[in-house]
Every structure is written in structure tokens, then in C-alpha cells.
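Lecture 7 notes. Example A: sequence first, then its C-alpha cells.
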Amino acid sequence: MSGTSSPGPGPAPDALELAALLCSRVCHDLISPVGAIVNGLEVLDDNPKPEDRDFALDLIRKSAKTASARLQFCRLAFGAAGSSGAQIDLGDAQNMAKGHIEDGKVTLTWNLPRLLLPKNRVKLLLNMLVIAQQTIPRGGTLTIDPVGEGETMSFRILAAGLNARVPQNIVDLLNASSSNTVDAHAVQPHYTRLLAEACGLKVTLTLDGDKVIIAAS
């Protein structure tokens, strides 16, 4: 052969693999706060000094709150969240998004109206927020605006923060052009693409000066 062909997209996971990878992703999100709860309980078991006991109880409270917020978010973003064809209140999605994403580094500005949307569109929005968060690794603000109205509404997220960037691996996965196998680290943008396709949309990332625009259209 006179040349070398470029690798094509990696093999897409089948239904069983996709389910397993999403479960791994959820477990990964929960390991840290649950582990912190265990550590706090171990401190309490050791008959600590009053100041250590207060520290342990504070750690347990904060970690339990974080674990609960992540579970609620993941249930909606990755789970069934109602029967086939169900609609989800954007107000509920806002509460779950704020509980999961606003962590002291990232803040949300939510400019969407409160109405019911088909669940796949709401799941798409939440997964777009996860991707948007990755474009501002040092924190910042995410501003969510509607595109269109009613049940066909789509979304535009403006991510602003120090060293905002467009991760090429995420772009490749959203375009189904990645040559890497989809694993637990890559399954979230892959799943976002599947949700967008189910809604007849495509998710794009664009660098606009020092900001990143994540849009579904």
C-alpha cells in the first residue's frame, strides 16, 4: 500500500454497553461525596475531640447534600424520568441543575420560561450543561437562553470563565468523528449526541472570543 488511511470513528457501544457506561459515569460522580461521608463517620467512630467531631459532622452534612443533588440530577439527565413520551417541568430541571452545577466555582443564569417540555429535550439541556461546565475548567458563569418557543424550543448556553476552551475530544464525540472507543469518560458527550439526534437537533461548540457557545439547533 502506498499510503496510510486515517482511522474512522471508534465503535459505538451497543445498548448493553451504553447502559453499563452510563452506570459507571453515575457511580464516578457519587464516589467522592459518598467516600467523604464514610470518612466522616469513621472520625466519629474514633471518639474524637469536640472540634474534630464538629468537623466530621459538617463534612457529612455537606457531602450528603452533594450526593443527593448529584443523584437527583443524574436521575433526570441519564435516567428514565417518567414514562415514554413524558414531559418535564423546566422549573424542576432548573432546581436540579443549580443543585448539581453551582458548586462555588460555577454559577447559572437561567433565562428559560417555566413550561413543560418533552423529556428528551430536558435531558439534552442538562447534558449540554455538563459539557458547558467542562469548557470553563477554572469556573465561571453559564447563561442559558431559549432558542424558539413551545415544545420545539432548543437551547443556547454561553460559558464565560478564565481560560474558557473548546475540548476537541468532546467536539469529535458530538460529531461522531472520534477515533477513540467510547468509554466511561467519553460516554456523556456520546449520550448527548444521541439525545440531540432523538430531538432532531445537533449540538455545537464555538469559541467566541473568551467565551464558548454551546448550542442545539
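Example B, a different protein, same format:
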Amino acid sequence: METLRIGIVSISDRAFNKTYQDQGLPALKTWLSSAVLNPLEFVEHLIPDEQPLIEQTLIELSDNQKCPLILTTGGTGPYLRDVTPEATLAVADRVIPGFGEQMRQISLHFIPTAILSRQVGVIRGNSLILNLPGRPNAIAETLGGVKDEQGKQVIHGIFASVPICVDAVGGPLVETNPDVCKSVRPK
């Protein structure tokens, strides 16, 4: 299996300034390491909520680091400093609205304030860029979806559609651990 190079970006003024320890990057790495069977290479960034810096980081990961998958965490709420979606849309070639719609559907299963989330999914060149929530449990829920007490999938997580989208933008064939996330590919 080909190595999957993933850009992961935690966007938080407080974590960047060391007011508290960043939990987004470890949560992303933990979930992805359990879900993806390919060897993984992470290109990590912890940055403040500054739109020009977010844009610059996404461009760097897409255009120069050649990451076919870029995941951000944080900065997607309604607060004035939450500018991750604006930065992501500013660097996008194409928007894939279904990713944001599905992320909100999953989160609404757990918390009514999910209607305030503004996550987006976009393509820039040969990269899929997805904005995830900031809390570690919300990251896992969004990626993996909602399961009932017996482990049956109730709402698919967004990662079920990530492998086919990574393939569509020219990335490697991504294999997933079906116990964590069954990826969907057309026959």
C-alpha cells in the first residue's frame, strides 16, 4: 500500500499561545492511525486563528507538500475569531457541500448547537481539505459517524467518502479498517 501523506492543522489561539495543550492534532492522529491501513505520514501545524496564516498553511500543504488529504480542526464556530471556513473557501478550487452537511448531521445527533458549526469540504488542486470540529470526541464522531449500542452504523461518518475523493483528486488508494470505518467505493 502506498503511503498517505496527510496535512493536519490545529487552529487555536489558546493552544498556539500555550494557554492549554493542543488536543486536536493528537486526536486526528489517533483516529486516523486506527482507521487507515495505509502507512501514514503526517505534516503537522499548530497555528492561531489568523485567516492569512490559515490560507498560507493550506496552500503550503496542498501545493508544496503535496498532501492529497488536509484536515483542519478548530475555528469553525460563530465567534469572530473563527475564520477557518473563510480561509478554506478562499483557497478552494471547488466546494463539496455534502461534507459540511454530513458533519452537521452527525454533530446534531450529539448536541443541538451543532447548527452553529460552519465546517466546509473543498478541493484545491490535488488536495481534499476538510474542516473538522475542535473537540477530540467531536473529531472522532465526525470522522467515524454514529453507531448504536450494537455497533451498527446509524449515520455514516465523513471518512467513509474520503478514500474515493482522495482517489478522485489523484491521491493514493486509501484502505480503511472496516471495524473503525468502512469506506464506500462504487462498483
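Note on Example B: The radius of gyration is 15 Å. Strands lie at 4-11, 40-47, 69-73, 94-95, 121-124, 127-132, 145-147, 153-156.
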